[in-house]
Amino acid sequence: MTAPRIVWLRRDLRLADQPAFCSAAAQGPVIPVYILDDERAGDRKLGGASRWWLHGSLEALERSLAGHGLRLILRRGDCVRHLLALVQETGASGIDAIRHYEPWWREAEQELADQADLQLHEGNYLAPPGLVTTGAGTPFKIYTPFARALTRLLPLRDPLTVPELTPVEAWPASDDLADWELRPTAPDWATGFHETGTPGETAAQAQLEDFLDRAEDYGEERNKPSADGSSRLSPHLHWGEISPTQVWHALEQHHGTGSETYRGEIVWRDYAQNVIHQFPRYPEESYREAFARFPWRNPDRDDAAAADLKAWQRGRTGYPIVDAGMRQLWAMGWMHNRVRMIAASFLIKHLLIDWRQGEHWFWDTLVDADYANNGVNWQWVSGSGVDSNMFPRIMAPLSQSEKFGAADYIRRWVPELAGLSDADVHDPADAKRPASYPAKRIGHKEARERALAAYRTVKG
After folding, report:
1. For the domain with range 289-459, which CATH number is right: 1.10.579.10, 1.10.630.10, 1.10.10.10, 1.10.1660.10?
2. Are strands 5-9 and 94-98 parallel, antiparallel or unpaired?
3. 225 neighbors 409 (Cβ within 8 angstroms)
4. Residues 435-447: tens digit of each pLDDT
5. CA nearest neighbour of 78 among 45, 118, 106, 36
6. Which residues are within 8 A (CB) of 321 and not within 5 positions of it... i.e. 6 or more apart?
7. Which secondary-structure segment (H or E) carries 453?
8. Could you give the CA distance from residue 376 to residue 292 in angstroms, rounded to a whole number?
9. Assigned fold of 125-156+202-278
């Protein structure tokens, strides 16, 4: 019998438009493998919310593979060690995988390629990072020219269909997914995560169809926290249950500003990968050197800063739109996109707490926590990034809340304020504020002046 090929899976948990499966299937029987490698990721091991989604995604993939007569082999530990052992156990001729760009995966791919036949394929992005360059042949740093250059090339290819998959005669040993305990039980703090979506490729396709029915209004509706205007595709894209190429082609059937707006967000996702391809530690280090001098309040040394950080994490800042977002994040493992920006700006500029504290919190609490997107978005808000908003542009959370009609959103996630009118719920006066809801940690005017004073020290 022809020697099998191992398909090494990470954030590419689908069968359709999956180049690694297509390549392996064309060469022989296929052994799909997922390895939970917390060791190599170090302090970037999956957060609690991500682990919840991963469990469901792997369950869904197991069901899909079973329909083709295949099993999903699960192992836990160092991925290179396990993959090399599987090659020996199964007599596999080599390994196929979709290329990943996080620094720990790039390191693992190089180490594996030195010891086995590793064939890497592109498939998680519209275009491979590094493909789109300036006229001088250098990588883009700024989003707008990157987006123009990339869009001119798209689409690079058509989506791939599910290949004919041949099982092996004897399967290697596998862990039981339940033994990994990826989901909480005592207590189960993730009971509301199902509202974010159902993990898996089938659910991803259904969510895309649902979004296409609403795509025309996306340009406006995406900014309204009280409306169901978001695509809800971000976890599916992050875990590779659907590819951006599939989404791009589906959107080609829908013309209008909404579809164009969402295409821009898919391009932004590619842009974020382009950034970490150039600067692998971008989610850990401010790009602009001047921010090394920024006088952040340090929660590890300052009790008041620690209390402010905890209030932000728990949704107890006294700013209803911020608190609603942070409570939604804890309950659902997801937060509305407009509110993500408001909440991030509040931590950085109102509370003067280092953007990395927020990035790490999002890493642990988002089901779609993405190394590149998370880091690029936080540095965009902080003003410290390669392409970012200017620090002095400080979002006013109270006016943002009113402008984008967040009254019902606040009532849902901050039930203490549910009885207030639209006029009062965005910024309840002390006389109308329930005793159970906290006063503002700091006033907006005071916070703005303090933030600008801190920024002046950076500017010298």
Report:
1. 1.10.579.10
2. parallel
3. yes
4. 999 999 999 999 9
5. 36
6. 225, 339, 342, 397, 398, 400, 401, 406, 409, 410, 426
7. helix 444-459
8. 17
9. 1.25.40
Contact 171, 73 (CB under 8 A): yes
Domain with CATH 1.10.579.10 in the chain: 289-459
> pLDDT band for position 459 (50/70/90)?
confident
DSSP string, 58-119: HHHHHHHHHTTT---EEEES-HHHHHHHHHHHHT--EEEEE---SHHHHHHHHHHHTTS-EE
Question: How many Cα atoms occupy the beta-carbon half-sphere of 314 within 13 Å?
Answer: 12
CATH 3.40.50.620 fits 5-123, yes or no: yes
Give Cα 389 distance to the centre of its chain. Answer: 20
CB 268 within 8 A of CB 151: no
pLDDT digits (tens, 9 = 90+) for 244-264: 999 999 998 876 778 899 999
Q: How far apart are the first and last CA of the chain?
A: 71
Strand order across the 73-76 sheet: 73-76, 30-36, 5-9, 94-98, 118-121
Residues of the chain with CATH 1.25.40.80: 125-156+202-278
**Residue found by looking up tokens 């992005």 in the block:** 125
pLDDT of amino acid 346 = 98
The span from the CA of 415 to the CA of 447, in Å, is 26
Does residue 210 sit in helix, strand or coil? helix
Q: Where in the chain is the domain with CATH 3.40.50.620?
A: 5-123
Residues in contact with 285: Cβ distance below 8 Å, sequence separation at least 6, in sequence order: 279
Q: What is the reported pTM? A: 0.96
Token duo for residue 68: 């083709």
Contact 235, 334 (CB under 8 A): yes
For every residue of 1-38, DSSP letters joined together read: -PPPEEEEESS---STT-HHHHHHHHHS-EEEEEEE-H
